[in-house]
Amino acid sequence: MSTNASSSSQPVLQSRRSLYVGGIANEVTEVTLRATMIPFGPIKSIEIPMDYALGKHKGFAFVEYNDAEDASEAIYNLDGLELY
User: Fold this and answer.
1) Under 8 Å CB-to-CB from 78, ≥6 apart: which residues?
2) Could you give the CA distance from residue 30 to residue 21 in angstroms, rounded to a whole number?
3) Tens digit of pLDDT per residue, the chain (84 long)?
4) Is residue 57 within 8 Å of residue 64, measured between CB atoms?
5) How far apart are the C-alpha atoms of 71 and 17, rounded to whole Å?
6) pTM of the predicted protein model
């Protein structure tokens, strides 16, 4: 496998288990996000990037499921949801 980024012959592998969750309110915590996402399957990880200068998260998160089908189910059921 080539590490050359300009090579168009190599397929780009993307994880279908990871979700971008955008526009989350300041009140949303990892616990809140986990409680919202867990009904769709086991979660491998949740990352909520922090803005340490402001002392709060940046308003988005990444949720990774163990299974791609669980991630698809979460997208189908939660698209457009507002937590707060």
Assistant:
1) 36, 37, 40
2) 12
3) 434 444 445 554 457 899 999 999 999 999 999 999 999 999 999 999 999 999 999 999 999 999 999 999 999 999 999 888
4) no
5) 5
6) 0.79
